[in-house]
User: Fold these one by one.
Assistant:
Number 1:
Amino acid sequence: MDRYLKFIFLFLVIASCRRSDNADSIAPGQDFDSYLAEQVTGQNIPALSVLMFKGSEIKYEKYLGVADKTTNVPLSDAHVFLLASISKTVTATALMQLFEQGKFKLDDKINDYLPFAVKIPGHATPVSFRMLLTHTSAIADGKALDDQYYYNRDSPVPLADFLKDYLTPAGKYYNAKDNFYDFEPGTMQEYSNEGSALIAVLVESISGMDFPTYCKQNIFAPLGMNNTYWKLADVPVKNLVRPYDGNQAIDHYTFTDYPNGGLRTSVRDMFRFLSAYGNEGIFNGTQILKAATVHEMLKQQIPSIDPTTGLHWFIMNSSRNIWGHDGGEQGVATIMGVNPDTKVGVLIFTNQGNADLDNLLTAAYDHAEKL
């Protein structure tokens, strides 16, 4: 399945999962550890990290399997997984920090801040920051993305250069039909990885810093996320978790539009980030966002179009008020969510591209509430 079709398939699955409040499949009286072991075996997951927390306190964590089946190194808290689309929550956080500084307003036109102009073919309505954050921009994930994977190295293509070539008529990757949807921006929703990558270009343009450096200085370092990386070259090789699709091992890879899915981190690092969203932007005294900003991001933004959508966050389970995100890529399945009322949250990272984690998130959240 090529990248373009895979993203469409994954979004349909993810959207369906978000709207479902069905009970998980844990058996009556079954303890969570045995349920977790069943999931690992039944879904052929080589490595699985689970962490549950309340507030800033870890209540449960488990590391099952091996980071690489060829070396049989047991999974540990130091190992980092590729997060896939969970990465978008970090990208959005970087942008919203600049929003707090008064650098832009959510309904401003992005073209007033970009080094190049973006126009949706056939429509005069300009794309706004809010449209990018709610996947209503009408920017599509075209087939040009299939050629932007790089194995065992980082992409040599600068992010802004690629998106200029992808979104402007003179660009070598431009395709008016393939790279855009045919609806007026703001009137419909279609999940957009390239819209998310464009958010990072806006962060670079507004802040004057390259995106990985901005995130390290303003998110990762303040939160103590010292095992978190945008660039493959920066990750200690011994910490990498090998991705798998079924039994097929996949080489470590990156892609040019990395801010939409290329973050690598551990569950302990990402716990610090997610915990802050469950506590009005603060983790252990460090504030990465103001409470009002967090409330805005974890709020229905387009209820008439999709009532599960916040600002690059989604309602994962409405009956439990779990807000979060999930991700799927080659050899990767991840999910995380937090209830901002109870401050209870869960993170689940796996290196199995075929894994279905929706029921596991529900079971883990229910278990965490009892701890």
Note: The radius of gyration is 19 Å.
Number 2:
Amino acid sequence: MGNEGMTMYKSSFFGLLLLAALVFSGCSTTSTTQPVRVDANASWALLPITNLSTTPRAGHKALSMVENILRTRGVSSIDWYQPEPALSLVALLDNAAELDKSLRWAKSQGYRYGLTGTVHEWHYKAGPDKEPVVGLSLKLVDLASEEVIWQSVNSKTGWGYTSLSGVAGKTIDAMLKRIRVSDR
């Protein structure tokens, strides 16, 4: 085999490796703002994550994963907003009012950051392979200025025998890597 043949063979081999890596990694789409640096010693409030998926309590599951990942990155002061029980159907369906109430609560309690978001998808696809699908958005609010300092949207599909919680954890982890936690 000459140099041309060897070069074509190497190109084909590396092309197949790249294709295999893409196939086995699942599909993912991300859109995010620039990274933001935050103080690890500041207090955080985990605010409601609106669940627009068909999976019950997906927002709560996402918040639990967010808390775990933030703690592994050095954030120690994290509290959850605990909404009052809804007394009416309107209160249950009015996500904007609940978010506004949670932001007021977090600010009045002296928290520095508030993290909220929306779950768009959180399920297994129909079909023989039943791939897990997660789609969500997160945003970080500086409560002192009420400014959104970071936000991200990500959707990811797993392959074959991947678990839904595994895909969700990787998705949230990838999103939160853009929040750089440091001791100030």
Note: The CA atoms of residues 9 and 15 lie 10 Å apart.
